[in-house]
Amino acid sequence: MLNENFTKADIVARYLPKKLIAAGQAEAFAPSNIALCKYWGKRQSELNLPVNSSLSISLAHLGTRTQIHPSQTGEDQVMLNGQLLPVESPFARKVVSFVGLFRRDQSYPVIIDTRNNIPTAAGLASSASGFAALTLAINQYFQLQFPDTVLSAFARMGSGSASRSIYSGFVEWRMGLQEDGMDSHAFPLDVNWPDLRVGLVKVSTAVKAVDSRSGMKRTVETASLYQSWPAQAAQDLEKIHQALSDGSFSELGAVAEHNAMSMHATMIASWPPLLYWQPDSVAAMQKIWALREAGVEVYFTMDAGPNLKLLFQEKNQALLETEFPGLEVVAPFEASESGASTTVKEPS
Ligand code: DP6
Fold this sequence. Notes:
Blueprint lengths: L7 H6 L11 E13 L4 E3 L4 E2 L3 E17 L6 E4 L2 E2 L5 H14 L6 E7 L9 H16 L6 H11 L11 E4 L12 E3 L7 E6 L10 H11 L6 H18 L2 H20 L10 H15 L5 E3 L6 E6 L3 H7 L4 E3 L10 E5 L3
Parallel strand pairs: 5-7
Antiparallel strand pairs: 1-4, 1-14, 2-3, 4-7, 4-8, 5-6, 8-9, 10-12, 10-13, 11-12
């Protein structure tokens, strides 16, 4: 019987072949994603099983590229953005232990070389693309050929939001009901909005004091306001589906902003309080509200950090680039390299 003591390793083991066969090297890319209906709170923490379903937009070419090579030294090595990390660093340990879920006791020392083109741990969801790219690279390296839904569920075990980074475009992560969580995975929505733009307002790229994992735990444990969150999230998800089927950008933006502010309200109602905003975050919010008053359709969402992600349409891009100098604009449905991808090289 599965229960809280059921481990990730037990679950992954059910899907693995007896003997792994390593490819010569593998490389995978996964996009970062921004939730429009947020994942906030877990019903089971070992497997990152969420309290609510969520929905995101993937960030096309912004994300993580991860390569896996055999290590000639006999030891695992982890590189982040071109730098070899000490084996004992928290990042290297997390990565090696995730690979260990698949490698089990078979000796395949590897070099994991991972590069983000978004700031690591700055509230721009690099753990999502990081675990998704790692899962895809492992799938290639050990020639596992898991279907996307299984890859999404495995990526979720690394970080919940990583389940959504397996796909591009609009992505929904259904919370699922099974105790082993294998029905808690994401899937892509068949909706194309070529004129949608996401703008990244970088208030601060410093590593945040309280990461999302501890932040959501604190919220669930201490904020009485959190009790209203699951129902609101379910309702917002419905409204976003409606907005997508109506093609209503205004509805999509309004629901996403309201959902983000509601999540932040539960954070603020935690003890000790969690306020991820900085004065510049609030100034940016006020500017957005003033622009909307003046008839410019722009909305924002925010995660567990001070940065804002603007939602707008292509027709307003030039104006918003002037209003927010340094705005990094992503076209989630642009044709060029977008979405998760993998390449694999046979052993020579
Ligand atoms: C606010 O996926 O980083 O960005 O599952 O503990 O790794 P863990 O948490 P994580 O939380 C993301 C929270 C969020 C909302 C979202 O992306 O849905």
